[in-house]
Here is the input.
Amino acid sequence: MDKIATRAFPAFAAGFAAFYAPAYCFTGANSTFTWPLFTYFPAADEWYWGLVAGNDTLGPPMWWYGWIASAAIVGLIAAVIALLLPARATEKFWTTALWAVPIAAFLFLANWELVWFIQGWNPRWFGF
Amino acid sequence: MITVLLILHGILAVFLLGAITHQTLGVFWPRHPGQTDFIANARGIRPHIYAQAIVILYVVEFTLGSLLYPSYRVISRPPLEELRILYIIGLFEVKENFAAIVLAMLPAYWYFWKKYPEARTARAWMTAILFATVWYNFVAGHLVNNARGLL
Here is the structure.
């Protein structure tokens, strides 16, 4: 259990954050990639698989639950990959990725979230 | 019902704030022998004692927030968009993103605090991230609710 948890839990957290941040930043009504696993329409109380844009009939879309579900799947895949790699060589890496990847994700997100706070902010200035 | 959930969300947030603040003080500013003042007593705790309570409170808070979110999306956010009060929407966007990423860190946070005492650096970083997230989400949640509540 110990040998599994020291790699699988950190890898899950790192994989989750590594997917969640671009999912939030790059999801839009016209996205070519389906970042959220599903879309929820709270006004109509209806769920749809994948990325669905809001409209006058269904109301505003909520992708947050879908991003979490997608990111959890990526986190689980990362955990499995971590368990397949040699423990002794990678344990230190995962122990660092556990906190370093979420911090990087926060910084990545901050660039996109500034559009809410600074008028005219362009997150693509940095080339993403 | 939504109002009851919102008040419960706010009350449990205070418990979570207290727990994570005590733990953070215990990790980064531990009490030294002989210090007996009020602040020193707040720091003089065994940080690992708080880990399980923090995980449980965080999961309950996250669940309550998830249940409240659709009401915010339908009732509170549209007027904010119409009035172009975008920074309030931004405060909430940051809050939801912090909340989700830290949720995924909880299994490792719990394990490293309970079973892996050697990983001091990782535990300290996780505690700091949780501390920043919980405090930010508490303040942002109140500001959003003050700007446009669910009633």
